[in-house]
Amino acid sequence: MSGLSEELTTAVEPVAGPTPAARTWRAFRRNPLGLVAVGLLALLLVVALAAPLIADYPRGYGEDVLAGPSAAHWFGTDHLGRDIFAQVVWGTRTSMMVGLGASALAIVLGVAVGVGGAYFKRVDGVLGLLVDVMLSLPVLPLMILVAALAGPSVTTLVVVIAVFSWPEVARVVRSQALPIVGLSYVDAAHVMGAPNRWVLLRHVLPAVSPVIAVSVVVTASRAVLSEAGLAFLGLGDPSSWSWGTILYNAQRSGSLSSSWWTAFFPSLAILLLVVAATLVALAYNDARNPRTRQDGAR
Amino acid sequence: MSTSRGFGRRVALGAALVLALAACVPSEPDESSDGASGDASEGGDGGGELSIGTTADVVNFNPLVGNSRTDSWVTNLMYPAMMTIDDEGTKVPALATEWGYGEDGLSAWIELRDDMQWSDGEPLTAEDVVFTIDAIKAEQLGTVSGMIGAYESAVAASDTRIEFTLSRPDGAFLNSIGFWMPIVPEHVFGQAPTVADFANDSDWVSAGPFVLTTVERGQRYVLEAVDGYPLGEDDSGPALDRVVFRVYPDVNTEVLALRSGEIDLIGNALPPSVARDVSGDDELQTFSVPSLGWAHMQYNMRRPPLDQVEVRQALAHAVDYEAIREVVLGGNAVSSNSSVLTPTFAQWVDDTAEEYTYDPDLSRDLLAQAGVENLELEMIYDAGDPNISSWAELVRDQAAEAGITITLAGLERNTYLARTNDRDFDIYAGSWAIIDEPQSNFHLLFAPDGFINYAGVNDPEIDRLMVEASTALTVEDARGPLQELARIVTEQVYDNVMYVEQFTFAASNEWTGFQPKPSELLSVVNPQSLASVRAAD
Amino acid sequence: MALLRFTSLRVLRCLLTLWFAVSVTFFVVRLLPGDPALAIASPTMDEAQRQQILADFGLDRPLAVQYVTYLGELLQGNLGVSFRQSVPVSEVLLERLPWTLILTGSALLLTLVIGLPLGVLAATHRGGALDRVIQVGGVVGQSLFVPTVGIALLYTFGLWLGWFPIGGAIDDDVYGLEAYASIARHLVLPCLSLVVLQIGAYVLTLRTNLIDALGEEYCTVARAKGAPERRVVWKHALRNALLPTTTLVGLQLGLLVGGAVLTETIFAYPGVGRAIYESVGQLDFPVLQGAFVLLAAAVVVANLLTDIAYGLLDPRVRAA
Questions:
Q1: Could you tell me which InterPro entries the record lists for this protein (chain C) (predicted)?
Q2: Least CA distance to A59: which residue of chain B?
């Protein structure tokens, strides 16, 4: 029945022994970049969760306006004398929330549409058209519009970013799934009378899962960046600190060009989060893929 | 096999794109006039080119319609006003030399200079003034139309004298039109079916020190010097060869451009943090000019419990004004002692006025007196205004000390305007750019049907005092009722005046002769100033 | 024949996409809060005048009528009149479009030119130090926040070193070769920040695809036949690895255009992206719509080209 596919699988994975997951993990551990990235992500997560323990919520004003980094203010102060370290710490919360929320929403939508389009030929045209349409809209300007329309809030940001991020996921997933659907073993499964659900779960989803893993990362990182972009343009949530809000304040108050620390630290935080997430996904992808795995299989 | 095909296609795609672009480009430089020399720079015989940074494009070249800041900066250099304003906030001669009212206040006159002419050689006469004011009245153009309610008709008694007939005495009439009304050339603007429809976007004719010659939207606006402009330091015309306004996205880039020498002057007022930073730079000079308006909060009295004076007073005492001026404005602001007669206008100011003290306990007591608990209010403001957005947060945090919850609604500018226009707010935070003639302007602010009476002031005593002030034809006669009115406004918290900003402008040291004037509108880019600028030795 | 049918289908789809995009933008824009009249009529005007202006701009008619009018005008190339500037939208945008095309086009080209060899290098040295450096570099580039990169570039190369101008797209009064040089000088920094932004996606995708392709049977076969590794990589593997990468070009275009809004804003580059940014603040509906339609059209056309290229390259799609 599924002998053909078994053959194909064993053909590319000649090493018998531990389960694929264990092998993946073993390979992952050998990648120092991936491990460092995981550590960074964990650290940021801790910061997000423990924000109240690390720094006071930034409010009011301080005496020292636009003071550079010092022992009292590790990251310096902003144009109202508020501690930027505290802002970055609390910003970690908002930014991660937006990133994860938007990514989750976008992935669900994108994978459903992408796999559905590739597999069910009847709806492919309609779904493909929808994806094309969404992709043809200049995304950031549309986000700006909708965010302005819906009023600034964290929920708005999550939904707006997700609504305009899923088509990319769908398109990549679909392009990955298309050749697989056409492969002989999938056809064979059909001929054997396997139900759609079974074929999707057994063949198509596993085949596109590396793409999905990469998409999670790309989408989450884009979401954090989009949030920063929108906030930077003044469309962030004014009642909660995010990294984008800090940057927006720096830009609006004109301290961007005179006090580097107002922009540097939140930008660095964004960079670290996005880089770490991306590296984790890359390392995972490499570890999963027997061809790129450095475990001496070749 | 087809690897090379894939590559080829890729390269072809890129090449096609680049070719298409290259085809677009050469046409750009051809647009500018052939006569302009390739390197008109400072030094030599020429007076040089002054580059001014701005953050917005010119929206409308018709000075009677346009009202954005950049619009005014550019058009003010071409269409002269009859009066300008001095450091005391008093109107002084520009195109006009003298003016006055008739005995009964129902007539008025203005005498013009006789040495002004349009850049196409036509003389600027009283007929142009009459044409301008009649067009404004007939078509209800711009802000000036709101100031000439008393205007009936005008005649050009001679080339230099205009005589006005008024329907009622209005002590602010001459000053308002003198300061606010740009005079446009009848022989150009009169060609259009209606003045409002006249786009004025090419072949400009100017009677200012400069005339617009080149417009590249999003990039630059070039104005060439006009010989013979008499109001600068040298009455034969500006020392500069030309003035170029360059468009930048925000003040950060402007500062970088100023420091790198790409521009010589930033037109916009600098935010306090930038002003502080720039004032320490040896290669730059800074100017400080007062605002002609004020920053304030208004409480919507149509909505209970804000209709109770105790509640408004409680709110007024829950703000640390000094902290706002020191921290948010970086000290670049002065107290107006909570009075609508601000220190910028020395002739009106009331020395007995006192600022609301910051006293959260008093606020709590006042709220208790009014029987109000758990006061929750929403404050709207223009999120694009850096100062107000900053102090809004302070106001919120300080009000919390007095047990008042303020929710901030920083809005996109048009939404903000729409909501203030619909009076859809609890607290409004904003600023007036220019309130230069209290005698007539206060009507807009405090009359029940006043156009910008956001708070909903409806007070017969105020109305009586406004009539008394507006019909007074001298400063002395108007001062008494105005000061009485201002006292009531403070007492009743009809308008919570927080501070009068001192704007800072920065320019390169390579230039000298700037003549700063009050307000961000006039600042150092006013026509007299730019007509006097020359290269420093 | 199949290809012709494939192409015409794609073109039809393109038109449909455009129509949908136009409709969506039209309605989204109309749903923005704020009284549109405020953006065109001075608050000091009396009611009659305001109504007159609203009528002039067709804002008093029902939404459906406005929509049909807009579509009709659009077919004739008329994008309406800017509320703010009282000039035709096409005029406002067309004088800006070349700059956006130059910026995004050169950024795309440069990305491909640099990205392709980097991707191949990373894939052929997989696991090595070079691979790591390229991967991390690509990831870092993707993760940078555009305005921060912009300001940093401006500060370093514009102010400190003084190599490149701070803003604008061309110097005053330059002609001929000098004009090209000036445009190039102004282009360097904004183009660079767009390349930094998107090169990672190309390099990483190509790397992954190439590594996959190199493990395929035909590569093994080619190696077995004694083909040199260079040939295997550049001839056999790259061809297949380029397929999914082609999809990426179309995919990244939307992002590129989005990035252009921020880049043009930071670098004072007078393109369509900055017009959008300015128009949002002013609620200038016609310009907003026009800019969307224009950019959407550009992306759709570029997508069409990638689709056709995809069809030419992939026999499976061609046959479908």
A1: BPD_transp_1_N (IPR045621), MetI-like (IPR000515), MetI-like_sf (IPR035906)
A2: B397
